[in-house]
């Protein structure tokens, strides 16, 4: 129940009023400039709702009439005039929607992905190791709830570079086993931690097979080990060495690599 008269008086004091709307509303009548908006029939969008987990495709049926523009288009054009680059604002077209669907894993074929992961695990299982000790355990976190909880252990508000792990449909948690007696002696004599070398090789076997399967991976060494152990009931005596994100890459183009000569 706003005090309309007070609001109108306050608005009349403004030097400039710009309104974007579909209709000539009372507020629009007060505007110096009206930017005509587009109706829901004039742009693509994804519609979500409360109380259910469905999304709906809103389809563009007609071109916007005359100078009507979607709000994001207005911002992009205004940005250009003011010298800002607002091109990152997504366009409400089908290619944006496709991108959102690809990134959200909504199109992931769960059975196909499981088979691919099985082959990645097999490649890792066949990795060589010092004295053939195979000092690894691979935990596949593909249950959406558990996976999300594990992903949340790889970043925080402050250090958030691993936030992308939330998007991965599968996380692999790599645990190292304690070396057996033979390896313990060898490690002590040679002053080397063979199990870490072994884990690295097995992880890379996994990732190379994943690439072969058309999957993308990222090894994460930065995560809250205690938190991951608690979620997966891993005994405190074991170490979690790596978390590997697995998913479908947005693009098959390999960006230039920064490497030493
Ligand atoms: C042991 C290890 C730990 C890593 N930890 C992380 C990590 O926590 N977060 C991340 O985004 N990338 C991580 N990476 C990926 C590296 O940052 C990445 O491979 C490196 O920057 C080179 O990038 P490129 O492989 O995409 O060319 C890790 C890689 C390895 C091998």
Automatic annotation (TrEMBL):
Ranges of residues in domain Nitroreductase: 114-248
Q: Which PANTHER family match?
A: NAD(P)H NITROREDUCTASE YDGI-RELATED, NADH DEHYDROGENASE_NAD(P)H NITROREDUCTASE XCC3605-RELATED
| MF terms (GO), sorted A to Z | metal ion binding; oxidoreductase activity
- What PROSITE patterns would the database entry show? MOLYBDOPTERIN_PROK_2 (PS00490)
Identification of the protein by name: Nitroreductase domain-containing protein
- Domain Molybdopterin oxidoreductase: residue ranges: 2-80
Q: Does the keyword Metal-binding apply?
A: yes
Note the SUPFAM superfamilies from the entry.
FMN-dependent nitroreductase-like, Formate dehydrogenase/DMSO reductase, domains 1-3
The entry's keywords: Metal-binding, Oxidoreductase
Q: Say which family it is in.
A: Belongs to the nitroreductase family.
Q: Does the keyword Metal-binding apply?
A: yes
């Amino acid at each position: 129940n706003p005090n309309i008269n007070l609001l109108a008086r306050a608005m009349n004091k403004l030097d400039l009023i710009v309104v974007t709307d579909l209709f000539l509303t009372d507020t629009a009548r007060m505007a110096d400039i009206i930017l005509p908006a587009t109706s829901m029939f004039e742009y693509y969008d994804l519609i979500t709702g409360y109380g259910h987990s469905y999304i709906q495709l809103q389809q563009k049926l007609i071109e916007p009439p005359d100078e009507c523009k979607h709000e994001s288009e207005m911002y992009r054009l205004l940005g250009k005039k003011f010298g800002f680059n607002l091109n990152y604002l997504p366009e409400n077209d089908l290619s944006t929607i496709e991108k959102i669907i690809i990134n959200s894993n909504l199109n992931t074929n769960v059975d196909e992905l499981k088979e691919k992961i099985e082959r990645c695990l097999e490649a890792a299982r066949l990795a060589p190791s010092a004295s053939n000790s195979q000092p690894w355990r691979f935990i596949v976190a593909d249950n959406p709830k558990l996976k999300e909880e594990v992903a949340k252990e790889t970043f925080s508000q402050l250090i958030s570079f691993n936030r992308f792990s939330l998007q991965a449909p599968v996380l692999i948690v790599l645990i190292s086993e304690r070396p057996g007696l033979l390896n313990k002696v060898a490690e002590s004599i040679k002053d080397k931690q063979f199990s870490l070398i072994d884990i690295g090789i097995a992880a890379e076997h996994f990732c190379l097979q994943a690439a072969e399967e058309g999957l993308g991976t990222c090894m994460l060494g930065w995560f809250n080990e205690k938190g991951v152990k608690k979620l997966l009931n891993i005994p405190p005596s074991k170490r979690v060495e790596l978390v590997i994100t697995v998913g479908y890459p947005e693009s098959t183009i390999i960006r230039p690599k920064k490497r030493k000569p």
